[in-house]
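Hi U.,

Before I forget, here's the chain from the pilot set. I'm dumping it here mostly so it's searchable later in email.
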Amino acid sequence: MRIQVKAGLAFFCMLAVSAAADSRNWVELFSTDWSHGVDKRIQYQMPRKDSIGVVDAPQEMGGKALKVTISKNDDYSAVANGAPRAELSFNGFLHFSQGKEYVLSWQTYMPAGYTLDRGQAEVVFQIHQGPAAGYPPFAIFLSEGGQYEVHNRTQSKADWVSAFFGRVESDRGRVVNWQLHYIPDGSGARAVTELTKDGQLVFATKGVPNAYEDDDRAYLKLGLYKADWLKKSSEVDTRTMYYGGVSVKVRD
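Structure:
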């Protein structure tokens, strides 16, 4: 099903109070500001050696940033699925287990001249399922219509939720702060998926299946993925996105 999500202030406040009342400690699983490069445990999926790299961040970000670039003319034959992408995979060391509570924080920066593609969407963040086949249980897209698009789903089409929010063009040339509160549960009984953008709740589901059943091997992927770039019409030939600091925390 496709729904338009609007954040309710009362609901957001309730979440904040609930989190404050919980005395369990958060444990940091991973954190980086890219100042020491890319963690050696992280795996690359990219067409060229310079598709992903740590650079001096744009002035608006400061410090270091991860720069990700893909081109329609790149050779993707040796990349996962042979599809246009440049992503970092955390599959080697960081996984999301059913029923555990996670908070992921990260930043994105689109250059001021970032051209939106009205021909097809592109993924800019995803939690990938452990099994090889199927769609990721959580992903953020830049949609053809110029909005952000979120998919929350399992291997069953009956569980799919899609939602749109905001206007991507308003974020060109500025840093965006994201946070995902995530309790994966393929049954839906304990499932929570809450996404905030610059401190505002933009997407939320509770009690809705948000992981593959019994999958404790789902993992983070960070970068650009444009699945149909070589198959369908597109208005752009290159994509460049910057990622700021990233952290992942957990509590049982």
